[in-house]
Amino acid sequence: MSTDQRLAPTPGQTVGPFFHYALPYDGDSALVPHGTAGAVRLHGTVLDGLGVPVPDAVVEVWQADPAGRVVQAAGSLHRDGYTFTGFGRCATDRTGRYSFTTLTPGGVDGGLPFFALAVFARGLLHRLTTRAYLPLPDGQDGDALLRAAGERRATLVAAADPDGYRFDVHLQGPDETVFLTVPGETVPGDRAS
């Protein structure tokens, strides 16, 4: 091939289902040990467009600490039992469920508190990112992102339950979760220049 010929772009590869073998690690879903004072459970189910649970997805969480500080401590992949890093990863089980043991995040710089989530699942070319806001107080209209989501804003708000918070992720369909574009990441349909 001559140097003046350009190669045609090829489609991306889907991200799964190999990640169940490559991404989980010991303590991945325990951002804090069970029994830690103030520990809560963030849990839910990953569902496809027909409402069927996805048994081979991986969910990642990033969050601020309870004081609203973005943690910048090493150790997310090697839990030491006392350092809160604000990052966790959980493979869904056979019923599409995921669960994290963590702390309730505080709002960063006076903003609303939320969990940032990324979902990897079969058939996806890229991870999907979203937010799970803590339940809003009555009369609270949210922040700019929630207002921009309009009638779909409920897909961005976790529900309180006796153990913490439940947040189901709908990959498609009428209840599809609002997914976000991360600056600097290529999304399907974009062309690199």
From TrEMBL:
Keywords: Dioxygenase, Oxidoreductase. Transmembrane segments: none annotated. Its EC number is 1.13.11.3. InterPro entries: Intradiol_dOase_C (IPR000627), Intradiol_dOase_core (IPR015889), Intradiol_RC_Dioxygenase (IPR050770), Protocat_dOase_a (IPR012786). It comes from the Bacteria. GO terms for molecular function: ferric iron binding; protocatechuate 3,4-dioxygenase activity. Residues 16-107 form the Intradiol ring-cleavage dioxygenases domain. It is an enzyme of class 1 (oxidoreductase). Belongs to the intradiol ring-cleavage dioxygenase family. This is Protocatechuate 3,4-dioxygenase alpha subunit.
